[in-house]
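pasting for the record
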Amino acid sequence: MKRYLGQPRWDTGISPPELMTYIQAHSPGRALDLGCGSGTNLVTLAEHGWQVAGIDYVPKAIRLARRRLVRLKLKQAVRLGDAAKLQAFDRPFDLVLDIGCFHSLSDAEKLAYQKNLDVYLKPGGDYLLYAHLKEAPDAAHGIWEGDLMAFSRFLDEKWRVESSENKPDGNRPAIWVQFNKPN
């Protein structure tokens, strides 16, 4: 994919402060990064004791992520795949992380993705979502606040919203949301 020719602007090599705050407040467990890209957040999680797995649909990104983790001798399970299609893992995760994957999916893919979350995340686990917000419903990139409200309603039937914070990305509106799947 052309996005990984050179250095993509979103691939800073630095995990966001929201993830660092989460790591500091939670004991290590198993983490899944949906849309893991070149593995920056996988490395950060693994260096803090987490067992990590990642999915991305870009072959070059997966190769980069695997190389980084192997070079650092960090155990991992990184696979080429579609975040909207259910992937088989041996057991559920304590944390599912999505920084910029959900907001790139079509409406049909978003629905499939939401259903997969219930399989991926164990009871008591957390889901961290970062997404760009559309400024209009017909904009090409991001999620509309109505999409986020529908997503929240879908998850809220079983899950709790632990926190939600508008966090602009430069001049682009964006949001961080943390959900918890009750026991």
